[in-house]
Amino acid sequence: MNNLISVIVPMYNVEKKLNRCLISLKNQTYKNIEVLLINDGSLDNCEQICLKYVKADNRFKYFKKSNGGLSSARNFGISNAKGKYIYFIDSDDYCEKNLLEVLITAMINDVQITTCGYYIDYLSESFFIEKKYTRDGKLDKKEFVLNIDYNGMFNVVWNKLYDLDIIRKYNLNFESDMMPGEDLIFNCEYLKLINNGVCCGEVLYHYMRENDETLVNKYDEFLLQKISCFIESKKNLLISLEVNKKVFKENISNTTITYAFSCLTNLYRKKIDVKYRLNEIKKIIVLCRSENYYLNTKLYDKNIKLFLKFISINSPKLMMYGYDILFFLRNNFKNVYYKYRKLILEK
Predict the structure, then answer these.
(1) Alpha carbons 183 and 197: distance in angstroms, whole number
(2) Three-state SS for 282?
(3) Separation CA 229–CA 227 (nearest Å)
(4) Do residues 119 and 128 lie in contact, with contact meaning Cβ atoms separated by under 8 Å?
(5) Residue 38 pairs with which residues in a beta bridge?
(6) Which of 58, 71, 139, 212 could cross-link 174 (Cys pair, CB 3.0–4.6 Å)?
(7) What angle do the packed helices 274-289 and 316-332 form, to 10 degrees?
(8) What span, in angstroms and rounded, lies between the C-alpha atoms of 198 and 144?
(9) 146 Cβ partners below 8 Å, 6+ apart?
């Protein structure tokens, strides 16, 4: 197979990390690619870096637009893509040199989506977590959806290769102002339209977890209100798959708890009034305890397990004091916090 892959690279003020990403794309073993560099109004030297790649390699194409956010930049890339397939990468991450080759090689016999595992790289602490599929190969739609969800890879787009014809035919786009759930919503809509997919066993993407403020870890005062949209999208997909009640309940519980936890950490990304924080934590607890979500979840992440313990105790003040201490350590005693995080994250 030698179909063109359009690679979409949105960027905003990532000059220190951009070369790492672009080098990984330039060195891909699969050569028939176009790399669309979408500068979403960066105020740093992203443009100069991009133009060097454009000059040296005609597969790289540069676009500059006013700042509109990650979804806007990806949608701009979709509208300008010329490939048969499309791949989205975050500009502060990078991939193994054979990622695109592995993904497109699996796109045979009418396969409509392929995906691989990824690393979560904690650069500051010099360790990583490997996330890979427990079941690989070609799967029908229901099996594919449940497999990527079970392995914690549903809510992202950057480890997947999509058919651009499907995206264009059904006018699929990324929802603006829905971060961090825009990937989930996009995947829900796309997966309704396919018949099958392939999970590749290889681990080929590097999701970089650093301390800098990026598009995905800035404070969002409306995050808790958005969760209902994320859950509704997931519910609609599962209903279309006709999954049984047990699977449905567990899946929605996992989704709810995952995003509820992100709402908690969101409260510590900015100095906010203590009373406001406590009130938001009360709402988070109510959400997690509604429909017994906190009892039906099957998440094994140790951060989530700690979160669930606080939910089960049902004390907003205790939860706030506990996370006040953790985030105080994070902000003031980084070495202690890093040791704690490494201890709970590493298996």
Answers:
(1) 17
(2) helix
(3) 5
(4) yes
(5) 10, 63
(6) 71
(7) 120
(8) 7
(9) 243, 247, 251
